[in-house]
Amino acid sequence: MYSTWAPLQAILNTGPHYILEDQSIWTGPIEEFKIPCRISGPVKAEFDIFPQEDGLLIRGKITGQVTVPCSRCAEDAVHEIRHEFDSFEPLPADDEAEDAEPDPDIDEYFIRYSPQGTGLEVNLGALAWEEFAQTLPVHPLCTQNCAGLCPKCGKNLNNDACECEKEDYDPRMAKLRGLKINK
3-state SS of the chain? Predict the structure, then answer.
């Protein structure tokens, strides 16, 4: 998984606005998790980080274009990404405090105290990837009226009609076709 740990102090000193355009933020995890998706237009994440009393408010957007297989015919379906988000990441407990207990709401993959002892760090790449993954369509379609594949012969019905015999009933109800009800 792609990680970009940035010291919180550096983020606040350089300004709260960040832009991530490195395509490996997206392509690395796509390959790692074997997601059937490819980047077909540059993907960019922009976000602003606002410190709060007990965490960080992250407000941003992701734009770009991906190509995924159509859920009906398996042909390429192009998906435009236009996603705006707000996320709150609570600060982890100070490890040096005597009564510090781990907080189950804190995901230390996003925000942590630096192992080098330089203070808090924010994983900008992981934040961007999490939001990107949520933008991927669950049931992508190549076109709104995609006819899909023939369930018998597998022919793409968007190109030509097949010669298979058409049945006028729902195949999911096939087991009930011979059911007789006595009155």
Answer: CCCCEEEHHHHHHHCCEEEECCCHHHHHHHHHCCCCCEEEEEEEEEEEEEECCCEEEEEEEEEEEEEEECCCCCCEEEEEEEEEEEEEEECCCCCCCCCCCCCCCCCCCCEEECCCCCCEEEEHHHHHHHHHHHHCCCCCCCCCCCCCECCCCCCECCCCCCCCCCCCCCHHHHHHCCCCCCC
pLDDT at 35 (0 to 100): 94
pTM: 0.75
Q: In sequence order, what are the residues at sequence separation of 6 or more whose Cβ sits closer than 8 angstroms to the Cβ of residue 172?
A: none
Q: Are 26 and 83 in contact (CB under 8 A)?
A: no
